Amino acid sequence: IKFFINKDNFTKTKLLILVILSGLLSIICEYTIFRKCYPEYISNLSTCKSPISMQGSIIKNYFSKINNIDKEDIISIAITPCTSKKMEILKFNDIDLVITTRELAKYLKEEKIDLKQLKDSSFNSLMSKGSGGGVIFGTSGGVMESTIREVYHILYKRNPSKKLLNFKDVRGLSNVKEASITINGVTLKLAIINGTGDARKVIEEIKTGKVYYDFIEVMACEGGCIAGGGQPRVYPITNNIKLKRMKGLYKSDKRMKIRNASNNPDIVNVYDEFLDKPLSDISKKYLHTNYINRK
């Protein structure tokens, strides 16, 4: 977002690779690709924590305060489609336990728990509204689409256009998807890498000047988190199955009243009452991380 606002300070002589590693918090890419093979690009990685790490941090440091609860008394459990989240929580201390969707389903079956038969009960709500932009994070291209929506909303002070709410150029299962979009007078070249297998190929092409991108999304699992290692096992998990799962998220996004994050009153409240503003010192402390070049 800072790039769009300060576009006059940007020159294409500087290689800008903003890699969003949704779901894995770059556990795989950071260690196996960037630290080992491309340490010169470490500073180009997005510093945003993954969604569960952000929420875990907010629960322990904000939710605990407004409810007068000692954060040491809170057990934070994340249910995820991603097995590497179990490794991620070793890096941060705000999530106590990670259970995959497959593990949860297995537990429910073993205990003969039928969710449809359970009675509704109250719960402590924290950021319970959600947004369509959050829902589509689970698909390849979803992080890119959600981010572009948000940038548009912040810069133009209005809701994204219909095209950006249905940004088909970044959707689908192609190994490398490309798109261009003009926002705030700047035309951006976007790339979505569907699976880490093509990440090195694209980086090598960037290094040699064969291609240029301003904004890159990398998903470790082909199709995105909908095909994560912790999801229900289907053999073989065909492209048709992945597309059906992706379509389900896009349907949910379309039905939601809130389509991008900054329209979510829960998010607004967290910033007003705790984080101040994006990239404030306290925001960086709780929502961001750092990458160290250890070569």
Which strands sit side by side, in order, in the main sheet?
A: 1-6-5-4
Count helical runs.
11
Strand content: 5-15%
- Percentage of helical residues? 25-40%
Instruction: Note the gap between the termini.
Output: 30 Å
What is the general shape?
Answer: globular
The number of distinct β-strands equals: 6
Rg (CA only) = 19 Å
The secondary-structure class comes to alpha/beta
Instruction: Please trace the helix and strand order, writing H or E for each element.
Output: HEHHEHEHHHEEHEHHH
Mean residue pLDDT: 85
Q: What's the structural blueprint in terms of helices and strands?
A:
Layout lengths: L1 H4 L12 E3 L6 H11 L13 H16 L10 E4 L4 H4 L8 E4 H10 L21 H4 L6 H15 L19 E8 L2 E9 L4 H9 L7 E5 L19 H17 L9 H11 L5 H7 L8
Parallel strand pairs: 1-6, 2-3, 5-6
Antiparallel strand pairs: 4-5
Structural write-up:
The chain is α/β, with parallel strands linked by helices and 295 residues long. It is 37% helix and 11% strand. It is built from eleven helices and six strands. The strands form two sheets. A four-stranded mixed β-sheet has the order 1-6-5-4, covered by helices on one side. A hairpin with a 2-residue loop joins strand 4 and strand 5. The protein starts with a helix and ends in an 8-residue tail after the last helix. About 6% of the residues have low confidence.
What would you say about this model in short?
About 35% of the residues lie in helices and about 10% in strands.
